[in-house]
Amino acid sequence: MRIISGLYKSRKIVAPKNLPVRPTTDMAKEGLFNVLNNLYYFDDISVLDLFAGTGNISYEFASRGTTSLICVDQDFGCIKFINQTAETFKMPIQTIKSDVFKYLEKANIQTNIIFADPPYGFEDEQFFLISELVFKNNLLLEGGLLIIEHSKHTILSNQDFYSYSKNYGSNVFSFFEIK
Question: Superkingdom of this entry's organism (predicted)?
């Protein structure tokens, strides 16, 4: 994986092969950040990265100037890798090793962007629970977005607060917001 833009543009990051992850493709990540670039000044926002995996999305935010980043993942290897990478590049990333659903139930924060990249094999109810917990617990700041990455076989448009989706190959980003 590589960082698309910003301070660390073109830097390659190689994750250990034994991590249980499916990093967002560079093409999909570039498309997502083209959308976000028109909505936010990256140095003015806070980001919560759920099911963070390798930290791929958070590295892109950090490279573009975001200084308030929290990564949540339940896998110790993923958290260790994110911490090592953040330290290497001096990125302001905080990690939390936790089950994402338990974290969302107890979280006492508000943020501009919540990005969730759960396993593509999740059942619809698990995808629905992400948005339900985010909005029930008021975790987004005014004007904030919940973005869920999923496969083209998962349909999230029937959920509350759904706004729109963007497709990039087999990756889909569904955007949720309070209107």
Answer: Bacteria
Which sign, positive or negative, has the C-alpha torsion 162, 41, 100, 3? positive
pLDDT at 121: 82
Q: Is 83 exposed, middle or buried (0-12, 13-18, 19+ CB in 10 A)?
A: middle
Q: Using the 8-state DSSP alphabet, how is residue 2 labeled?
A: B
CA separation for the pair 15, 164 (Å, rounded) = 31
In the 8-state DSSP scheme, what is residue 177? -
| Domain 31-176 architecture | 3-Layer(aba) Sandwich (3.40)
62-89 pLDDT, tens digit each: 999 999 999 999 999 999 999 999 999 9
- Name the residue with tokens 């200084």: 67
- pLDDT tens figures, 131-159: 999 999 999 999 999 999 999 999 999 99
Q: How far apart (Å, rounded) are the C-alpha atoms in residues 54 and 78? A: 6
